Amino acid sequence: MAEASVVVVGGGFAGLSAAISALEAGASSVTLLEKEPKLGGNSAKASFGINAVGEGDTVDAFVEDALAAGGPSADSGLVRTLARHSMESLQWLQTFGLSFDEVAHGAGSRVPRLR
Asked: Per-residue pLDDT for 63 more than 70?
């Protein structure tokens, strides 16, 4: 097997994003390991969508809603980081042809933010 400069385990949104980011950052090669026959991981199985702070929303409101829904298991620092970078991440995914045109009101959120 050829040597890779980066090895990514998992072919869901997170793993695929990590592999692409590694190449964009200058990795000479990336090996993606996935145990399933198709890429997508749990992202492909998700029945909802991706939450992102958008028009009429705020990072603080996103964090409050997520912490209320997640209860004591939610890490406020990680939730805040997610909220702060959520729209930027969606826009990055759109550069690869993903479409997030529709915005819905998901459970536990005070404003529509589910794409």
From this structure: yes
pLDDT of residue 23: 95
User: What pTM value is reported for the model?
Assistant: 0.77
Residue 67's nearest CA partner among 109, 37, 26 is 109
* CA distance readout (Å), 115 to 18, 29, 52: 21, 32, 7
Angle at 99 between CA 9 and CA 107, to 5 degrees: 80
Spatial distance between the Cα atoms of 11 and 34, rounded to a whole number of angstroms = 5
Q: Write a three-state SS string for 37-52.
A: CCCEHHHHHCCCCCEC
In three-state secondary structure terms, 12 is: strand
Whose structure tokens read 């198709």? 38
